[in-house]
Amino acid sequence: MANIKTLARREEKQLRFGWGHALCAGCGIPIVVRTVLNSIEGPVVVANATGCLEVATTLFPYTAWNVPWVHTAFENAAATISGVETAYRVLKKRGKIAKEIRFVAFGGDGGTYDIGLQALSGALERGHRFLYVCYDNEAYMNTGIQRSSATPLGAFATTEPPGKTSFGKHRHRKDLTQIVIGHHIPYVAQASISHWQDLSRKVERAIAKDGPSFINVMSTCFRGWRFEAKLTTEIARLAVESRFWPLYEVDEGEWRLNYLPEEPLDVRDWLKLQGRFAHLFRPEEKKEVIAQIQAEVDRQWEELLARCKVVPTV
Amino acid sequence: MAARVSERLQVLTGHQAVAEAMRQIEPDVVAAYPITPQSEIMHYFAEFVANGKVRTELITVESEHSAMSACIGAAVAGARTMTATASQGLALMIEMVYIASAMRCPIVMAIANRALSGPINIHCDHSDAMLGRDAGVAQLFAEDAQEAYDFMVMAPRIAEHEDVLLPVWVNLDGFTLTHTADVVELLEDELVREFVGEYRPKYPLLDVDHPTTQGPFALPEYYFELKRQQVDAINSVPRVLQEVQAEFARLSGREYQGFFEPYYLDDAEYAMVVMGSTAGTAKEAVDRLRERGERVGLLKLWLFRPFPREEVATALEGKEAVAVLDRAFSLGSYGPLFLEVSSALYESERRPRLYNYTYGLGGRDTTASQLEAVFRQIRDEHLSKEMHYINLRE
Amino acid sequence: MFKSYRALPLGGVIQATPDRAKKKTGDWREEKPVWDEGKCVNCLLCWVRCPEAAILTEEEEMAGFDYDYCKGCGICAHTCPTEAIEMVPEEEEVPKPEPERERAGAAQGRGAGRGRRDGSKSE
User: Fold this and answer.
1) Most exposed residue of A237, B124, B349, C12, measured as fewest CB within 10 angstroms of its CB?
2) What is the tens place of the pLDDT at every residue in A230-246?
3) Phi, psi of A64 (to 5 degrees)
4) 3-state SS string over B235-277?
């Protein structure tokens, strides 16, 4: 497993991403991208769904990418990379390409949970060798904080705002990681920008698989979630500590919990740090909604623990 | 040079003719999704793949949107890429067709023309093809399976020409051509392979030593100019098509000269403009009327996009009257083909009276007698400028 | 500025030459990170969490900030376990200015593309 120095050495040798992009100061997405790309040795080709990452890193004639990168549309990063990967296999067979190349697709939660789910599912089922990384910031941030199926219950979204008759989003988030697990691909994991080493190790495992792999990365958005930018990785860490976002993997069918919070944080303590949940606390606390969120977190956690063969000790 | 045609005169359906061309071209990647009346093209091609007759990778995607997305991915990667679809499949693809054109992907696409829903209908008209009218794709229309085969063989040469680099659609009428058998003369495999040659992509994404960013975000200060490039690209098609046709004629002995086939057109007083298999019916009508001494003729258009404005105008000016037959609506206006023809003739001082007929929507039959009646109508009557309909219960 | 659409690359393809990253984002900053080398233990947590790749390393050790690109988000200062990074208002005098050195021998790496850290034009 690469340590932080190895990753730094790789970036010294070749900065793969990060020249003058226009993502917000303190955005979580580029942290995902750098860790993913630095964790892959050798040539890599990237496909990107439409979204913050794509628009802010390729403002023609500038690009923040120093690896081959392609974007075609919003709902089809997985389909696009499946074409690239297939071309690679054919051209390699025909002796036109000699190098070993790895393939990564990036999409946000909108481009992955929602509009891109069909293309993702198809590409996973077909068995292309690629890693799909979802940077999940729990709403359509690029278009203005509209609710997605990754938006948690009770959160503010511009299309489901709290009001006199509403407490924000009325439905729990979709569990995309579990949907992907249902495809029985070689490797599926959940990770967070707060736990770089865990993410880096997962990328290494995923990329080594001779088939599709998927990593769902919690990538906070200070603008949409309403907290100070410097807390970007900290809020992500607390999502893990509160068990809202468990770090786990399903490797060749074996479920493993990767991190067991020593003293799990009450989800309330995580919610109250974020402006998107402020209406659950003011003017008076909406105890039932918060209890509903906590109950769902607990239920999913128990379900996950029951499935995990490997659980770390505290 | 004598025509080097094989002795393989075969009885093939349109599906088979297209699939045979694909086999001979042996693209690197094909991505496709089933839809009537296209599906059999892929059945035949999948058999070629399964039996090792081609080394093509067939991506059996979960939708046409993904078919086109995968084709773009493969094309930018540096692979020769093809697909086939129809109707709703093309409608689902169309977002990506615009993008394929803008990203300058020379993807060859066979379109088994079928009506668009709704109501849902599986039979032929050209409403699906008209989805591509403004998308930046070159569009050829075949009259029969032989033309469909020939156009498929020519298509990669047009699409991949460095001045073009755009998708090319080969349109063939669903069922009428796809499902009926006809005598088709195939070229020898080797000849086709030589003719299409190697695909040499300009900026292959897989060139990891020279990384490229493909499909970036263009703001107002660049978008317009990037779109303007596509104008030059599509306007290069007529010249490239003629070069390819000339070379193809040497290879096959089959002469395709220009952008349409004139049939008794030169001395005709009354003419008809039509695309696709109905040209065969129209020829029958012309033959019957010519037998009776009527000076009627036909302009069978092969190239719809880019529209060969000047050539069509030159061919039609001086006629008494022309009926333009559309097999698609552009609801709220005249038919798409009529709009092109009338616009082409606007500058002409000898422009004929022009009438727009819509025919054959959703697979409605059109007979030679009905087309004879159209000729008589434009000859004898002073028709209104409204849309006229063939074989419709008014 | 280009004079004709013909001067633009085919289909808007951007080649990853050093010129591609001339879009500097250092002027977004309101606060600027300042590094106290003495307190730094080279854990590189700031480096791994920087959204801009604006924490520079040399031989796997912290080597300061790339102010051409640093947007001043403050994640590095917040993340630093030894408080070796401090955010100061942009207009304030920087206590210990970064040495204006170029990254060594990075023909393939960031140095080649970024030009000098002092913001002068790259060659």
Assistant:
1) B349
2) 999 999 999 999 999 99
3) -95, 5
4) HCHHHHHHHHHHHHHHHHCCCCCCCEEEECCCCCCEEEEECCC
Closest chain A C-alpha to B120 CA, distance in angstroms: 23
0.90 surpassed by pTM: yes
Residue at token pair 């010129």? C19
Residues in a beta bridge with B139: B169, B305
Provide the pLDDT confidence category of residue A20 given band limits of 50, 70 and 90: confident
Measured between alpha carbons, how far is A153 from C105 in angstroms, rounded to an integer? 51
List the structure tokens of B122.
Answer: 């599986």
Chain C CA closest to residue B216: C12
Q: In the predicted model, is pLDDT for residue C105 greater than 80?
A: no
Q: Is the pLDDT of residue A293 over 90?
A: yes
Which structure tokens are listed for A156? Answer: 């503010």
**C-alpha distances in Å from residue B129, one per residue of B124, B126, B170, B301, C85:** 11, 5, 10, 14, 62
Contact A45, B27 (CB under 8 A): no
Which run of H or of E encompasses A48?
strand A44-48
pLDDT digits (tens, 9 = 90+) for B326-340: 999 999 999 999 999
User: Which residues of chain B lie closer than 8 angstroms to A126, CB-CB?
Assistant: 59-61
Residues contacting C97, CB < 8 A, separation 6+: none
ipTM: 0.97
Instruction: Place C94 in a pLDDT band, splitting at 50, 70 and 90.
Output: low
Helix (H) or strand (E) holding A243: none
Count of residues in chain A: 314
Distance separating alpha carbons of residues C102 and C111, to the nearest angstrom: 7
* Residue-wise pLDDT tens digits, A184-195: 999 999 999 999
The whole-angstrom separation of Cα B126 and Cα B141 is: 10
Nearest chain B residue to C20 by CA: give it.
Answer: B213
Please state, in angstroms and rounded to a whole number, the distance separating the CA atoms of residues A279 and A248.
Answer: 31
> Buried b vs exposed e over B177-192: b needs ≥16 C-beta within 10 Å?
bbeeebebbbbebebb
Q: Say whether pLDDT at C1 is over 80.
A: no
Length of chain C: 123
Place C21 in a pLDDT band, splitting at 50, 70 and 90: low
Task: Decide: A157 and A151 in contact? Cβ < 8 Å.
Answer: yes
Answer yes or no: are the C-beta atoms of A299 and A247 closer than 8 Å.
Answer: no
